[in-house]
Every structure is written in C-alpha cells, then in structure tokens.
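S., here's the first fold you wanted:
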Amino acid sequence: MTPSSALLWILPPLLLLMAILAAGHALLNKRDSRAAFGWIALCIILPLAGPVIYLIFGVNRVNNRARKGYITKLLKDYTDTISDPVGTNFRPVSTVGERVVGKGLSSCDEVTILENGEGLYPAMLEAINAAATRVLLCSYIFDSDSTGLQFVEALSAARKRGAEVKVVLDGMGELMSFPRIGKALQRAGIEFTRFNPVTLIPPSLNINMRSHRKMLIIDSLYAFTGGANIGSRHLCALEGNRHPVQDIHFRLKGRIVDELEWAFRRDWHYSIGTRKLGPFRHSNPNRSEAPVWSRLVLDGPNKELDRLNDLILGVISAASSRVWIMTPYFLPSQDLIGALIAAHLRGVDVQILLPGENNIKPAHWAARNVLRTILEHDIAVYYQPPPFIHSKLLLIDGQYSLIGSANLDPRSLRLNYELGVELFSPDVNQQLSQYVLAKRGISRRVTKTEIESRSLPERIRDSIAWLFSPYL
C-alpha cells in the first residue's frame, strides 16, 4: 500500500473523529442551545475546517488558575460597604448590583467627566507627573504613536522619581499597534506584563479571553476608568487624524479608588502568575457623607461570568421612568431585547444611541439585523454622525449611571474581562444626561421603514454578519 492510498484510508475516519470530538465538546460545554447547535452543525458539515475553527474561536480557554485561583488570591482585609447610605433612596435599582456582586456601596467623593483624548490625556498625564508613590495602568489598546510615547515618557519619569509603576497590557490589544508599545516600555525600564499573551511557542490561542478593562490609579488617590484606550486616534481635533474616535472617560476619587486598585492588582498578579499574596489594604475611608455612591462590578469568562449581563437586565427591569443607552456595538441577547421591550411597554422612556458609521463594519451590519425587532415596538434608536463614537453609558431613571469598559455585545458580556462602575447620584446622572442629549440633538432617528427597505443583498449580508455576532 502506497503512502497516498494509506492516507486515503486514514483521513476520513480521522476527520470523522475530529468532528465528533469537537461536536461533543460543544454539546457538553456550551450553555446556549443555539450556539451549541451552530458549532455542532459546523463541525459535521465541515469536518476539517469546523473543528479547527471551533478550537480557535469556540473553546473557552480559561485555565484552572483563572477559574480557581484568580478571585481568591488577593483578599481584602475588610469590606465595610454600606447597603443603604443615610439619606438616600436607591432601592430597588441598587438591590440588583448588591445581589449580583454580593456587597453594598462604596463612597465616591468626586466624579470628573473627561471627553475625548483632548479632555482625558492632559488630565491623565498631569496625574502621572504628580504621582509620588504609585502609578498603575491597564489598557486594552496602547498605541506606540506620539500620544502613547508621551505616556511612556511620563511613566518613566515617575519610576525615576521612585514611584511604583506597573502596566498591564492586553496580549491581543497590544498587537493592534506596530511596533508594540511593550518594546518602548521595556527600553524605559517600566515594569509591565501581558494579559493572556498570544504566542506561537508555546502555542497560546487566547483570541477571545481578552482584558478590555481600562484603569489608571494614582497614589491610591485618583482612578481613571471608562471606555477610552491610549492613542492619538482619540484626539478628535487632531489635524490629519484619519480615523478619529470620540469617547468618554472618568476620574474618580474616594473609596471606589481602592476597589479599582484591588481589581488592577488582581489582574497584575494573575498575569505574572503570583501565587502567595498578602491581603489588600484599603487607603480610603468609606465616608458616610459622600456625594456619590458607587459599586465596582467585575465581569469575565471565569467565576464572574454574566455579572454585567445580569446587572444590566436587572436595572432595566427595575427602571420606572427612563432607560438611556449609548454604546458603540449593539448586539443584544434575546433576554436584553425582551427587557427593553418590557420597559417600553411599562411606559419607560427607552432610547438607544448608536454610531451611524462603525469602525467594525460587520458589527454595524449585524446590529441592523437586530434593530428590526426593536423598531417594531417603536423604541427610539438614533444614529450619531461621524466621527465614530465609542462611549458606553447606561442611564436609569434620575440617579443611576453605569460606566465602564463593556459594550452591549456577546464579546464584552461573555468573552472579555470587563469592568463596570455603578454611580448613584442625581447630579452625575444629570451631567451624563446632558451629554446624551447633546449627542442625540445632532443624531437622526432610525425608522422601521429604513431597516425594512434594505435591499436583498444588504439583508443577506447583515444576516450573515449577525450569525457571527458572538465573535465580532
């Protein structure tokens, strides 16, 4: 028997075995029946390509360290959160987060809203330049352009002053800029680590399990968080910026800073593989007279899976007057669509603001396929004009705001490590409402007729993109 004829005998049963093993894994491990059915069908129809695609995109590779040790390795010394601050009335909305996270509220002494790179980067660089004891930075994308190198220079100066400087880069996000910013950090002597790095040797295909979190903590005094990455693309007024990105970010002060520092140090120790740690100690008191109350909600494909999804569903269901959403990527689950429709039927003012032009075209196409159901119930959807807007906000009634890094899509809510910060404050809610109203004022309302009048090729394209929505 020649080698070629032997291969013809061996290959079919081998492909069949690969398809059976991949389909069996999907059957036993996928929690969504539609996702399981889709992967099983793909593996059967394409017995060679299907298992390979499933191996790369379909398998949750969170290892035992992430599942068993990631949460418990950095314990707090105490958790004196407050369920019902004196003089407030945040129920029943605050009950949702309390049940999801298992803790009450932390004080927030100050919230500063920073719009686009023009408002954000000078504040971040000023804080880094004034840092005396520590600078902790985590970013999904950290471009090695002029803006990114400004940050490297400031971080290097802080290190030379004797401050503790640590940087967490996402292993995939770093690859979106060339040369990689890690090389500049290394030349500057800055201590950094990569979250789930993508490597060929040893092979590591962590394409999905990304850290999408954005944090900057200064001296345990200030914390910056929100949706913005680091790079000149966020400088919307920069002449010659071919792909400007609008965004909104926040500087926080108070006990919530400790919560974010704890989250950063967990990510740091997870990334470097530290096993033995002492307790985390708070630096800020939980002040009973705080003007803003807050709660950190961490989410990821480990034991914290679905926290943000459950939180968003819960607070929308608890809304009595208003649900305003701003997100760059809108690929909601059927549960979320149902919650929005139910809120609308209760008489709640539901408004959704999306970018009219998206930086990820397939995500925009897939969203158009979803909007028909939303628009059939006369829910207000608006398309914002360019430049692309990356802001992420959820406003409930008159005193609840959810900020952070997560989009309303399966990648954020199922595959990424994300963070959200609940802010309970009429004043903050009012400021963010003005921001949303300003954006809505220059936007156009999407109509049901517009979506239904798409040409057949457009509907086919949008439907195909929607099939891949869990991975966009």
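And the second, which I think is the more interesting of the pair:
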Amino acid sequence: MNRRLLRECRHLERDDESGRRWSAKNYPGGYTSYNSASRMHELSPTFAQLQRGLDRHVASFAKALEFDLEGRELQITDCWVNIMPRQVVHSLHLHPLATISGTYYVHTPRGSAGLKLEDPRLDRYMAAPPLKANARADRQRWVVVPAQAGTLVLFESWLRHEVPPNPAPSPRISISFNYNWF
C-alpha cells in the first residue's frame, strides 16, 4: 500500500496547481494539500483503504484514553498530503476543532526529521532550571517521535507539535489527518 500511496502523493503534488501555489506562500519549499485536497479519503480508493486502517487504530486509541463519546464514533474530517524536501520545516501548531490527529509516514529517507511534541506544561516552567542531559523521557520538555515509513503516530489534537527542518537529502512524505466526534 505504501507504494500506491507514494505514487498518489507524488501525482497529487505534480497535478495540484492550487496546492502548490498555497504551499509556496504558507509552506515554503514544501508541498501540502492541506488547503486544496484535504479530504483525500473521499477522493482516492487508496486513501479510503488507509482510512479503514486508521479508523481501527483511532478507535483503540480513544478507548485507551477513556473517552466517553456518548455513543458516537470518531469520524475522519480531514486527510492531506505533506511533502518536505531538505531543510523544509513545519512550525509549531495544534489542530483546533479536532479530537484526535495523526500522521502516517509514507516515505522517510534515512535521517528524516521526526515529529516533535511539546510538553503542554512548558509555559508553567518560567523559572525552572535546565534539565540534566540524561533526564528521564517523562521529564523532557520536548519528545521527538522518529519518522519511519509505515508508522502511524496518533495524538490528541490540542497537543502542540512541529517538524524540525528535514536534514535528509530527499523528501519526507507523510499523510496527516484529523478525527472528531461532533
């Protein structure tokens, strides 16, 4: 499936003139279909197949988070492509109006930038001294989840995150998505 997704991501980048124009202004050096083709799960059978797998993982994640969804199911609302060539960055952000967000890695050259998650308490550390270099992972101010092709990363949508500059010589390609329950 990754080969088919990769081929479709590359075709979309090539054919999506509106997305390339928006990306030039808002995602310098990279490409995203976020503003042009953000419901790929409705446009492509391959992305619809991906969604069916995502649905199962998101349902399990919501159960692990002990969400009371009041008898409703989480539904995918958005699904878009991100292509990050060398040195492209995706700045710190969150996903408003969503419950669970995530990324599926399609193509990750060796050394690709991972997903950097911010400790939500960061603004409360005003006078805290720096951490020791070997501080435990649960004490870190940031956690980086490595980018690896075929890997799915889920997180609650309020969690601020970013992708540092991609140091890899070839593009890092991922599919991002949001799920909501209202």
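Why I say that: The chain has a mean pLDDT of 95. The chain is about 25% helix and 25% strand.

Talk tomorrow,
H.
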